[in-house]
């Protein structure tokens, strides 16, 4: 996210330094009417939206979303679904009401189902030429490439309402994902952060304080490296006495050994895909960081298979083992998952993914968000552009509530944890190789090359690269020809 998120976190951090932390098919007939009043404009000196207040006469704006990525209840919510005292849900509902009132529209959210299901209704409607959906909220990568190459999505730059260079839009990310200078993938403050970070059990850490030291200070001094994470995790390995290593024992590290492992690659500043001087995509790790990616692959393989590490994956059927068990020192956690830990007794601290080494410029976290898309069959372009712009415009209270929820006393009971979360969100990056990984099986193999080696006993990264690189690049760049 861009500067709005950072302003929110900065204010929260400042507050915590002073106070203890206390327990986010349309009827398009008729001309829209500009109902902006001069008295309203004069009543406030705050920055006003570029979109004027209008009345679209209850035109329907339907957004279909992939529930695997845009978690249900975090983006749209009905009044009867709001839990008493849940400020985030209140703000989400208020955002929808604000947009509806400001533009005279009715917003409808349709759960499209899983990554395997969510595009079917959209494709059927577009193929029939129906203006059924006005926005799609995609999976992080499934079907994104296909939606573009099949001409299902519009260029965000076609809509005058969209203020793409404002702080609440992420223009850089959209530009990174552009095809032939067209922005089919939208991203703004409406898209709440979805990323992984390193959580640690504060109570357990006290037993190893002399060996580990101050983790927060190590992060600040850029001493928090992957070698340090492995070293500290190796301190904890305790069998419960039954003679077998399973989820009943105590470990230094645990994780879902699949999606989160990809983020180690970006934490080490090793992009999957980059553009060359001619604007073409190429798979970059073995071209630009050969020694580093091979070493990282070896380190992760040894780390994930160490006695002090407990992992579960899509292939082994093992139960999870989380921080809340009080038998894990470090765990890779998703920020949505942090919210649920507020109901547990365990005290959790958070850290960014570790650097490759102390010479690395900054901490980086791979974003696992989906993107926004505008279907090609929309009929009322002005209404669609206005609603999407105002959903972003009215999002600041939602993002504030979202981060305050994550920064609750059970998750981050110290200013240092707020500071660490700020580092995580400030360092979010995306990757063409992730968002467009469904462009080919070969690109998907390269995206998951590290987890495949670690969790499925597949070849090492160098072999994956050699086997899949050329086809992945060819089919990825074919998107240019198809989407032109």
Overview in brief:
The protein is built from 21 helices and 16 strands. It has 484 residues and is an alpha/beta fold.
Write up this protein:
The chain has 484 residues and is an alpha/beta fold. It has two domains: 21-193 and 369-414, D-Maltodextrin-Binding Protein, domain 2 (3-Layer(aba) Sandwich), CATH 3.40.190.10; 196-368 and 423-483, D-Maltodextrin-Binding Protein, domain 2 (3-Layer(aba) Sandwich). Helices cover 40% and strands 13% of the residues. It has helices spanning 3-18, 38-42, 87-103, 119-127, 144-149, 171-176, 202-205, 209-212, 215-220, 226-233, 259-267, 285-288, 290-304, 335-340, 381-393, 396-406, 415-426, 432-435, 441-447, 449-455, 461-483; strands at 33-34, 54-55, 59-65, 105-111, 135-137, 196-201, 237-238, 250-256, 273-275, 281-283, 309-312, 328-334, 348-351, 365-366, 372-373, 428-429. The strands form five sheets. Strands 6, 7, 8, 11, 12 and 13 form a six-stranded mixed sheet that branches. A four-stranded mixed sheet has the order 4-3-5-15, covered by helices on one side. Strands 1-2 form a two-stranded antiparallel ribbon. The chain starts with a helix and ends with a helix. The model is unreliable at 16-31 and 33-44 (pLDDT under 50).
Helical stretch tally: 21
CATH fourth-tier homologous superfamily of the largest domain: Periplasmic binding protein-like II
The CATH class of the largest domain? Alpha Beta
Number of strands: 16
Helical amount among residues, as a percent range?
Answer: 25-40%
**Any idea what the shape is?**
globular
The CATH architecture of the largest domain is 3-Layer(aba) Sandwich
Distance between the termini: 28 Å
In round numbers, the mean pLDDT is 89
- What is the fold-level CATH name, i.e. the topology of the largest domain? D-Maltodextrin-Binding Protein, domain 2
* Domain tally: 2
Strand content: 5-15%
**Content-based structural category:** alpha/beta
Low-pLDDT residue intervals, each spanning 5 or more residues: 16-31, 33-44
Radius of gyration: 23 Å
Q: Biggest sheet: strands, sense, closure?
A: 6 strands, mixed
